[in-house]
Amino acid sequence: MKIIVSAGGTGGHLYPALALVEYIKTQDIKAEFLFVGTTDRLESQVVPQKGYAYKGLKVKGLVGNPLQKIKNAMIFVKSLKESKKILKEFQPDIVVGFGGYPSASIVLAAAKMNIPTMIHEQNSIIGLTNKILIKKVDKIVCCYEKAYNEFPHDKTVLLGNPRASVVTHQKMQDIHDIYNIPSSRKTVVIVMGSLGSSSVNKVMKEALRQMQYDAFDIVYVTGKNYYDEMKEELKDLNDSIHLVSYIDDMPSLIASCDLIVSRAGATTLAEITALGAASLIIPSPYVVANHQEYNAKELVDASAAHWILEKDLTASGFVKETRHLLSHEDVLKNLASHAKALGKPHACEDIYQEILKTLERK
Predict the structure, then answer these.
(1) Contact status, residue 4 vs residue 95, Cβ threshold 8 Å
(2) In the predicted model, is pLDDT for residue 9 greater than 80?
(3) How much is the pLDDT for 70?
(4) pLDDT in tens, 98-138
(5) Residues 348-352: contacts with CB within 8 Å, 24+ apart?
(6) Stretch 153-175: mean pLDDT, rounded?
(7) Mean pLDDT, the chain, as a whole number?
(8) Which residue has the higher pLDDT, 192 or 288?
(9) Could you tell me which residue ranges the Glycosyl transferase family 28 C-terminal domain spans (predicted)?
(10) What pTM does this model have?
């Protein structure tokens, strides 16, 4: 089987794509893969480093003033021609798009050439690229009920995010061992994405001061750019507050902590639900179409998480909510149980089977 996978721009598109490819390799050792992405974004560096063949397309979003939009549209037309060339050279059995502008180019070109196509939508709000592709593709895979209800049901399946499969099969470390925390103490992990959040950091400076004498330890991920500043300002806190700039093994912390406080990125929530973790979510309001709030709302509506919108976030409110959750074991267990019920631990397996079915129908 020969598969072209396209995922452009962000880790939210890229890492689910990589997870699926890694799984397919275990099922079909002869499978060949070609990644198509941008020439200058994350995927252009990560994919070649992992040893996969890679083609970059020069594409830009249809944003800016009218003149810029016209220029970007002309660039997109050129990318379609380049995509057709890539398709003729590689001759894939199927093209799978995970979002981002390059996905629009390569998937549209494949559809015009009658090559089987599939798209994957990670968020509850359908991205612009996938909106463009809805009528053109053979199959659509999504992760949230809200997205499923907006896609045509005759070709859409709700199978989840491939990262869910990865973390459920991963060997985990325990947060108590990693940070030398007594096993009897509860733990909270607070992480606002890999880069951190300046706005949340401001609130947490006071919140952490208030909680340093509570009967639980906190691992606070500042983000690499804010670590030195936060470490200096909070240098007088006791050793129950563990400041780190970045976490390499987030699934282990999600699986072993008592409460995870996080943003509502698609991959993060896929991991939280797959692992069945109790969570307090602070959706980022700085994302396209406010999609993190909609992602989080699906968990909150299913009693699988609590949340605080950033506009309502205060140090005193956060401390009160965190203390409430940590002092009510039944609430934590209920959140974890409902989160687990939403999880899609077999996402990779199910998506792979859907690929095989799509090829059979063609």
Answers:
(1) yes
(2) no
(3) 67
(4) 988 889 999 999 999 999 999 999 999 999 889 999 999 99
(5) 348/19, 348/20, 348/23, 348/24, 348/162, 348/165, 348/166, 349/23, 349/165, 350/157, 350/159, 350/160, 351/20, 351/120, 351/141, 351/159, 351/162, 352/20, 352/23, 352/24, 352/27
(6) 95
(7) 94
(8) 192
(9) 187-347
(10) 0.91
Q: Which amino acid is at 73?
A: A
Closest CA to 133 of 157, 161, 149, 155: 155
Asked if residue 194 belongs to a known ligand binding site, the reply is yes
Q: Residue 268 annotated as binding? A: no
Q: What are the tens digits of pLDDT across the range 304-354?
A: 999 999 999 999 999 999 999 999 999 999 999 999 999 999 999 999 999
267 CB-near residues (< 8 Å, 6+ apart): 11, 12, 15, 16, 122, 161, 163
C-beta of residue 101 within 8 angstroms of C-beta of residue 59 = yes
Is 11 marked within a binding site? yes
- 2-161+346-361 under CATH 3.40.50.2000, yes or no: yes
Is 10 part of any known ligand binding site? Answer: yes
81 CB neighbour count, 10 Å cutoff? 11
Rounded mean pLDDT of 53-69? 76
Residue ranges of the domains in the chain? 2-161+346-361, 175-342
Residue 343 marked in a binding site: no
Residues 6 or more apart whose Cβ sits within 8 Å of residue 22: 166
Residue range 175-342, CATH number:
3.40.50.2000
